[in-house]
Write a structure and sequence with these properties.
This protein is of the alpha+beta class and 81 residues long. Helices cover 17% and strands 54% of the residues. The chain is built from 1 helix and 5 strands.
C-alpha cells in the first residue's frame, strides 16, 4: 500500500505583453484577459481568478514603483509515494 503525503507546490506569475505567464515545475502558460481591456491590473485580476479556480492561493505580490512585477502562489497537493 502506497503512502500518501501532502506537498506544497509553488507557482509564479510574471507580466508579459498583454498577458501574465504562470510558471510551475510543470512548465509555463499564458493568461490573456478575454475582455476588451488588456491593461496590467485587469489582466492580473483575470490570471489570479483562473489560478484561484485551480486551487492556488495568493502568497505575495512584488511591485516596482507600484506596478506588479511578480506574484507568488502556492497550493497543497496529495501524492502517493
Amino acid at each position: 500500500m502506497a503512502n500518501v503525503t501532502t506537498i506544497t507546490r509553488h507557482a509564479f506569475l510574471s507580466p508579459g505583453h498583454s498577458s501574465w505567464s504562470v510558471w510551475t515545475a510543470d512548465g509555463s502558460r499564458a493568461f490573456t484577459n478575454p475582455g476588451n481591456s488588456h491593461r496590467v491590473l485587469e489582466s492580473l485580476a483575470y490570471a489570479l481568478d483562473q489560478m484561484v479556480t485551480e486551487g492556488w492561493q495568493l502568497q505575495q505580490i512584488f511591485t516596482d514603483q507600484g506596478a506588479p512585477t511578480l506574484v507568488v502562489l502556492s497550493r497543497e497537493e496529495t501524492t502517493s509515494v
